[in-house]
Amino acid sequence: MPRAGWNQLLEQTVRSLPMTAQIGIEAHVTPGPTVVDTGTATGVQSSTTLQDTTKIWAVNGHGGRLVSIVGGTGVGQTATITSNTANTLTIVTSLPGQQPALGWGITPDGTSVYQITAPSPLTDIRQRRDQWQQLDQPLPGNVELLPDGGVRLKATANNGPVSSGLTAYARARNDPGAVAPFMDPLVPDNVQHFAAWVEWGGSESTQIELTQLLVWLDPIDPTNPAGPKTVSYWQLELYHVEKIYRIPDYGAVDLRPLLVTPMKVDANGQAPGFVAFTFDGPSRPRPKAGATNSLIGDVGFRNGLAHTLVLVTGRQKDGTRAANIGWGYDGAHGSVVSGGGSTLYGAQVKAPRNVVTLTNTVPAIQFIFGTHTPATVSFADATGQVNHLDLGSVPAIAPELIARADVPVGTSVHFEVSDATDWRSVEL
Fold first, then answer.
1. Distance between CA 275 and CA 267 in Å, rounded?
2. What are the beta bridge partners of residue 305?
3. By C-alpha distance, which of 99, 73, 94 is closest to 82?
4. Residue 222 CB coordination number (10 Å)
5. 145 pLDDT higher than 80
6. Environment class of residue 46 by beta-carbon count within 10 Å: exposed (0-12), middle (13-18) or buried (19+)?
7. CA distance 235 to 327
8. Domain coordinates in residue numbering, the chain
9. Cβ distance 333 to 345 under 8 Å?
10. Tens digits of per-residue pLDDT, 163-192?
11. Residue 71 to residue 40: CA distance in whole angstroms
12. pLDDT, tens digit, for every residue of 313-364?
């Protein structure tokens, strides 16, 4: 942490930044109390007052401030001023509400030198998203900004399971001629709902993060191009499969959301094609971070591997299901295997027990995840002068540097701060 007397937090550099680290700086500074008056006690003193007959104070102008004996009798005592007259302070040394209220431990006298101080508010200096853009011009090419004021390494896109074939479409349940599984919101209706299912049996890291899902969607059912467009937005639901049961329902699953809330993408003006669901928040889904407890063991349901269920639905403006839409799929293949060895299947899900059955149709969907290259990221202003967290005059109390990072298990982040002469490690 910075030493007392530093008037600037000069620069923060993160060296060997691991993948997906989120970092940011905040400076919390308490400049110290402001002295508003001093003097020597004169007149009549008591255990709950201090008088200085030479003063002409505004009545109650010092209420809430502190008075300290800095010399003479009672030196070292500090009390809170509850009220004052033109020349007399009424004080209390006990905590608010404490009974009985306590006064001076040693009553001041004519030798007591006092000092009245007003507390200074805590000063926060934060680097927010817009400030990063101003201060770091340009930002390193492998860094992206986060809305909360941190930065993160950009991911290099790599494909997970990918399917682009189109032979038919999952459609809304109330479309003429539509057959199950339907592209409808999952509700307890014992109807088969269309979904994508991934068994993560490949060589990918358990810490892979999804950066994007591309899903082939049509805002007007290709089998009914003259029909009306009702879809306002597409909604993505992403689940980790916690458990797969054999009985009483073969393939029933327990699901845990991988998204805090379903993701929505505007469908207005959209043409048929791949719709991008991009995970650009502070954290991204990690589909392999937990294993699935499967009581079946069949291919596609193997125990100990992570499994992911993906549901995409079309919604009207009021959130109800849209009609005359389509999610493309490849009916010529039963599964698609990624380069890493994970397998994508088509699935149908039936609520309320969430019974999953694998189908011989593979949804047109692409799983994009990222790898990251370690890097050094320095924060400096546009001219290269490393003094952008200027705290003003030397504070009376040592400033505090808050360094934060959110990194995957098994990685680390190292912070250093410069005092203009040397780099010093910040111990976390």
1. 9
2. none
3. 94
4. 15
5. no
6. middle
7. 12
8. 8-31+122-151+373-426, 34-118, 155-371
9. no
10. 998 999 999 998 988 999 999 999 999 999
11. 9
12. 999 999 999 999 999 999 988 999 998 899 999 999 999 999 999 998 999 9
CB 376 within 8 Å of CB 224: no
pLDDT at residue 25 in the model:
43
Rounded CA-CA distance 185/180 in Å is 13
Residues 88, 51: contact at Cβ < 8 Å? yes
Q: What is the 3-state secondary structure (H, E, C) of the chain?
A: CCCCCCCEECCEEEEEECCCCEEEEEEEECCCCEEEEEEECCCCCECCEEECCCCCCCCCCCCCCEEEEEECCCCCCEEEEEEECCCEEEEECCCCCCCCCCCCCCCCCCCCEEEEEECCCCEEEECCHHHHHHHCCCCCCCEEECCCCCEEECCEEEEEEEECCCCEEEECCCCCCCCCCECCCCCCCCCCEEEEEEEECCCCCCCCEEEEEEEEEECCCCCCCCCCCCCCEEEEEEEEEEEECCCCCCCEEEEEECCCCCEEEECCCCCCEEEEEECCCCCCCCCCCCCCEECCCCCCCCCCCEEEEEEEEEECCCCCECCCCEEEEECCCCEEECCCCCEEEEEEEECCCCEEEEECCEECEEEEEEECCCEEEECCCCCCCCCCEECCCCCCCCCEEEEEEECCCCCCCEEEEECCCCEEEECC
Q: Are 79 and 103 within 8 A, CB to CB? A: yes
Record the tokens describing residue 133, joined without a space.
């853009």
Residue-level pLDDT at 209: 84
Q: Which two tokens stand for residue 283?
A: 């954290």
Residue 111 corresponds to which tokens in the numbers above? Answer: 């030798």
Please provide residue 129's backbone torsions phi and psi, each rounded to the nearest 5 degrees.
Answer: -55, -45
Query: Mean pLDDT throughout 121-133?
Result: 46
Residues 134 and 382: beta-carbon distance below 8 Å: yes
Q: Tell me the CB-side half-sphere exposure of residue 314, using CA atoms within 13 A.
A: 29
Other Cβ atoms closer than 10 A to 281: 12
What distance in Å separates the CA atoms of residue 182 and residue 348, rounded to the nearest whole number? 8
The more confident residue out of 29 and 191 is: 191
Evaluate whether 353 touches 251 at the Cβ level (below 8 Å): no
For residues 81 and 67, give the distance between their C-alpha atoms in angstroms, rounded to a whole number.
Answer: 7
